[in-house]
Specification:
The structure is a single chain. This protein is of the alpha+beta class and 63 residues long. It has one domain. The radius of gyration is 12 Å and the shape is elongated.
């Protein structure tokens, strides 16, 4: 599975760094707690795989 991920927001919540990561070609946005952008993307990728998010673009074609 090839997912394209992008960080759309980086914020602090109760002293904890959180990042919102969008799966391109979908309406999915994943919120993850991470210390770095790289860690956030890794966590979001693993979360998407566990949830079965395929990264299909509109119209059903692979990115």
């Amino acid at each position: 599975m090839s997912l394209e991920l992008e960080i759309i927001e980086d914020y602090l919540q109760h002293g904890t760094r959180r990042l919102r990561v969008r799966v391109r070609g979908t309406k999915y946005v994943l919120n993850v707690r991470a210390e770095s952008a790289e860690e956030a993307l890794d966590k979001a990728r693993r979360m998407a795989e566990k949830l079965g998010i395929s990264g299909l673009k509109r119209g059903g074609t692979r990115p």
